[in-house]
Amino acid sequence: MRTAFVTEVWQIYVLIFLLNACSAGFTPVFQATIPDILEDEEQYTRALSLSRLAYDLENLLSPMVAAALLMAMSFDVLFVLNALAFVISASLVISVMLPEPQPLEEIPGVWRRVSHGIRIYLKHLAFAVCWR
């Protein structure tokens, strides 16, 4: 099997790992950014619900759309379209101006800061699960 930039099977595994690692890092950062943008709890809840809906629909519809497009065009054309969509998506993400995060009270020590961050993450995660 030989495709663009990939000549061995192990390279596919590395690419899958990198893609999933980036996705695993992006999702909590994205969800933690929503409260900085939307301070109203009702808007925050709605935005979190809509983002989760979009994420789930993308997971369901993307394979179906890809399969349908593969019936009409070659893999190479679909790969180029996917790369173009990625570049457009990345440029839109980079173009967004986020508000400055609200300063927290100073928490001394590395481990206390890490545990504080984990507690905030779990609190937001529990909130997201409850409103799912």
UniProtKB/TrEMBL annotation:
One of its GO terms (cellular component) is plasma membrane. It comes from the Bacteria. It is found in: Cell membrane. Keywords: Cell membrane, Membrane, Plasmid, Transmembrane, Transmembrane helix, Transport. The keyword Coiled coil does not apply. InterPro entries: MFS, MFS_trans_sf. It is a multi-pass membrane protein. SUPFAM superfamilies: MFS general substrate transporter. The chain crosses the membrane at residues 12-32. GO terms for molecular function: transmembrane transporter activity. This is Major facilitator superfamily (MFS) profile domain-containing protein.
